[in-house]
């Protein structure tokens, strides 16, 4: 089964560099987060709206490999694939590749690996929690969101 | 009347640099904020506690001059003087100077200008608001905090 | 004489918020910088290229008013006007307004004030320096850049 | 063989929080970096000095578990253990625990696990590169640094 990558292209900001003249490594995690926000938007809901209903999705684990550094003013694409979703847990895979993939692929790429040079790749794990940081089941807490997110995953698979 | 500067010394972080190999200019505003937090702590209360009671003190205006850049691993001191406080409004003056002034002056310096080379200096204006961002009077909303902050300003003056 | 505002639209990132649930005030300075980068790009050169030739444009002074806070996932437009340019110095004016002005105005707005609700407005002053942070004259150090930047300012004026 | 943890205590900054009212997850990586900087300082050299000689130590891989979130104004201790060092590669382990461990343990803790509640723990891998990002051997490129770093690791072991 192939992966479905949602693509979001952006430019590297000056503030994101450090004195090695490359992007400071922690900033890639912000980019992964931007990618996840856009993934959710593709499903027809907004992560902001989810938070306003008291549903949070904090990162519980991450694993990142830094292959090549990005530089100021580079155009990069954050590629985001939801690797797993249950009522309790979510796993995303993220890759940052050089260049504007979003325009050339119309926002979505289906395949094991997004084309082009990978700068950074990572995996994040998340749990659904409520405003008091207690774990919750998404299907009970927010069944409409649950249905929409599942629909997006299934539509991704049917694109295989 | 002389100014009373509360001193907080710290080291420049790697993440705070940019590719000019100096501290990115927006980061000085974080340091000003750290200085204000420590100013409040000197008054025997914590800014965190104030926020937990629904009292916020957002910045409404700032004016900053950048004289010399700080560099990674520099030891710098943030000097914070409360220039004005009413029940509605607060004005702070902040200076970042090179070196560890806090140890050599035991945390407080009384005088118009903290000694040593100034890197950055600025003025910030603030208003008291509640959790809904509506302006409030500090003396009505939180009379104990009001009294403690006033006491700190007066003790500063009596140190002249 | 009217002002020419170059418009750059973007979304507020999660990482840019703080626990007041609004954008942390120092982040608006990053947005001003993004606006200046895009201003320069409109002139047919890139700020990155300028830096690679050893020409830097650090901020020496800033003055910012915070009117309304931006929130996570808001669409905002950074509007950038070059208020003055000499061979030694540059002054920019920046405004952040809510909504996507860039699309609706095709990237440029001529007029005293960009339309829509202003969140934050500021003025920054800059000097041209070389890699050793010594002031330089732009017309001598980089005459081609100087010509292109001037051309952009004049084309802005002729748009009046 | 027990681990030797070098301890660095600090306060959580306002700017480090996000709208979940906890520290934004990417910021823990900055703290790990601060811990590594202080580890190197314990060896009698400064990381800044190493960079000035053209020796960089970028992160190539990281693996982080987020157990409990830190909050604004919390006092936290970053604990840093060098797990492996060769002429080519370095591996660090980092833990962030709540409270001021540095004062109570005089800066160093020997044992498998630093005491107290762990908020975040992670492992980072690094390679030595030169200013052109080419891998180098530390013992050839900077034999004095190599000797000092090894001495610190051995002194750590002899403390068992």
Verbal overview:
- The structure is a homotetramer of 160-residue chains.
- Chain A is of the alpha+beta class and 160 residues long.
- Chain A has five helices and eight strands; from the N terminus they run βααββββαβββαα.
- In chain A, β4 and β5 form a beta hairpin.
- The first copy, chain A, is globular.
- At the A-B interface, loops of A face loops of B.
Oligomeric state as shown: homotetramer
What is the succession of H and E elements of chain A? EHHEEEEHEEEHH
> Helical percent range of chain A?
25-40%
Number of helices of chain A: 5
Biggest β-sheet: strands ordered side by side in the sheet of chain A: 3-7-5-4-1-6
Q: Any idea what the radius of gyration of chain A is?
A: 16 Å
Please state the structural category of chain A: alpha+beta
Span of the ends, CA to CA of chain A: 7 Å
Indicate the low-confidence ranges of chain A by residue numbers: none
In round numbers, the mean pLDDT of chain A is 94
How much strand content do the residues of chain A show? 25-35%
Judging from the principal axes of the Cα atoms, what is the shape of chain A? globular
Report on the biggest sheet of chain A: 6 strands, antiparallel
What is the strand tally of chain A?
8
> Largest contact between protein chains?
A-D, 21 and 21 residues
């Amino acid at each position: 089964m192939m992966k479905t990558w949602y693509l979001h292209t952006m430019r590297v900001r000056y503030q994101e560099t450090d004195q090695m003249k490359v992007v400071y490594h922690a900033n890639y995690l912000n980019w992964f987060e931007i990618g996840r926000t856009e993934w959710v938007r593709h499903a027809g809901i907004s992560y902001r709206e989810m938070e306003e209903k008291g549903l949070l999705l904090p990162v519980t684990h991450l694993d990142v490999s830094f292959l090549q550094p990005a530089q100021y003013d580079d155009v990069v694409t954050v590629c985001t694939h939801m690797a797993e979703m249950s009522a309790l847990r979510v796993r995303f895979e993220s890759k940052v590749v050089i260049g504007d993939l979003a325009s050339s692929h119309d926002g979505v790429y289906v395949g094991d690996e997004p084309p082009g040079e990978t700068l950074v790749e990572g995996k994040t794990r998340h749990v659904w929690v409520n405003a008091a940081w207690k774990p919750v089941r998404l299907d009970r807490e927010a069944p409409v969101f649950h249905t929409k997110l599942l629909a997006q995953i299934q539509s991704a698979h049917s694109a295989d």
